[in-house]
Amino acid sequence: MATAIDEMIRWTTPVKHFMRTATVDYDLRGTTIKAGQDVLLSYWSANRDEDVFDDPFRFDIGRTPNKHLAFGFGVHYCLGAMLARMELKALFGALLPRLKSVELAGNPELIRSTFVSGLKRLPIRYQLD
Ligand code: HEM
After folding, report:
1. What residues line ligand 1, using a CB cutoff of 6 Å?
2. What residue's CA is closest to ligand 1, atom 24?
3. Where are the domains of the chain?
4. Which residue minimizes the CA distance to atom 32 of ligand 1?
5. Mean pLDDT per 10-residue segment, the chain (129 residues)
6. Cα dihedral 118, 122, 126, 129 sign
7. What is the pTM assigned to this prediction?
8. Which helix or strand (DSSP H or E) is residue 119 part of?
9. CB under 8 Å, gap of 24 or more: what pairs does 47-51 form?
């Protein structure tokens, strides 16, 4: 379950990006970022980095290691990361043993946001035990 939950978080990467301001000049693979320049951290891109993940576009619930950056990195690492993992574990831990079937019952609709991604609507048909 633990590896599946981190793969769901990597796959969906709910926070799309954050900004940072460089405090010193920095060379990133031949591109110089000057002190004072704003840069965009793309968590979506980081979490599909083929230098880090084997077959990054494959959803693999057994993926290990899974060094995704969906919760950020460093001093601003998400304070709610463990709570978010616990919530997903509680949800799927309760749901999966009872779920007999689930299928799409309409077109999914995404929220329109430049910052956080997610579903606005996901019509499903399901049967519980
Ligand atoms: C799947 C769910 C979540 C995702 C993907 C997520 C993602 C993130 C990301 C990317 C950051 C920025 C990290 C950075 O700047 O390097 C962040 C920061 C933060 N998150 Fe979350 N988060 C989630 C759930 C939560 C929950 C449940 C809480 C609180 C109950 C929470 C509280 C915070 C706080 C307080 C910060 C700011 C930390 C700081 O600036 O020092 N997050 N989160």
Report:
1. 9, 14-15, 18, 43, 70-74, 76-80, 83-84
2. 80
3. 2-97
4. 80
5. 96 96 96 97 96 97 97 95 98 96 97 93 96
6. positive
7. 0.91
8. strand 119-121
9. 47/10, 47/11, 47/13
